């Protein structure tokens, strides 16, 4: 690696971070001591690792009531950009050392938090679902060095931001609903973190292969320092030492193999991001960090149907994992269809692997859809309608299939729409959450 920056100094050498850690342990001990539960009842739900407290149990939380209050007053706090800017300002004013736990640019973090707020608000009437989401998030946040005390800090900062931003216009009942929502989410996150204590907060992984495939794409293989459990179709966040504190998600391209190595497909979408560092400035022997596997877009429980996979660009990574898994566990008689979209034939960057899969899987039908092919969406005179998103409609009847979609967010959304129009029910159209902004999920 060439542009290496020191990274240990960011947290380990920070005296205040050390103090915060000790403070967190003190707070945690205090919260876990039975005598203090009453006194700290309102924070207890952040830290309690064992059985759920009444405050944190999904069944005990009237999320629908809070949802109604929050939604009715959303106009006062949306768009969230200003609220979130105030929130981080308030947090860093009170606790300057926390700034060092975040990357230099807060842009991605702010967008991420905005999406999290939207998710919570939209799903608050289904506390079980929110709780499951938050426990997964809490497990993942261990890699960032997030401690239980930080959730309390976050809640205080949110309260201050709501006050600064919406001030007198926001009733106390609405502010309380926001705080209850965040407290409920934090309780799930702390539980998720505690339940994951037996696994590493993150894995280190040595790059064993780095192949440039065309101008912007690289295929990487990495060997994690400890066994890395995942299910095909899941993704992991990666961190390059060139950009400490910045993590970006990529799918594991392939089912877990005997050698324990993982494959990632990375497209560089612009300068200076994680993808740029991984494509341009990373080589064999470099060490990356890997967050725990995430995502629920897997084949589990879906082996009773034929499978339809629609993938675009490096979304092929997810498709490859799902199809390898299907090949390994396919019940007799079941088949799969893959529609793979690319800008041009040169952008089919993993063509030999696809040909190998095709030749050993007679039950797999593959349709390649090129933007610059005949009638393609990018071809001369292309009107945008002959692309991978509506290719299934042109190739048969996929009723009764379970569909998996991966690729650029706009492609995923459009494909899901076309599949619905073909009559596939929503629960049989599977994909990772698509951000409601123009920022890609697997961003720079
Ligand atoms: N690297 C990874 O492991 C994974 C990446 N992804 C996502 O896949 C995307 C891949 O991007 P690229 O390889 O650059 O894809 P790309 O820009 O090369 O496009 C690939 C295909 O998607 C179609 N497409 C692109 N934009 C579209 C739109 N607005 N509407 C309809 N169809 C559209 C194109 O026609 C093409 O067939 C990224 O956004 C990434 O977030 C998804 C899963 C895994």
UniProtKB/TrEMBL annotation:
One Pfam short name: Globin
Broad EC category: oxidoreductase
Listed cofactors: FAD
EC number: 1.14.12.17
Span of domain FAD-binding FR-type: 200-300
UniProt domain Globin: residue ranges: 61-194
Keyword Iron-sulfur: no
Residue ranges of coiled coil: none
Protein family per UniProt: Belongs to the globin family.
Name of the protein described by the UniProt record: nitric oxide dioxygenase
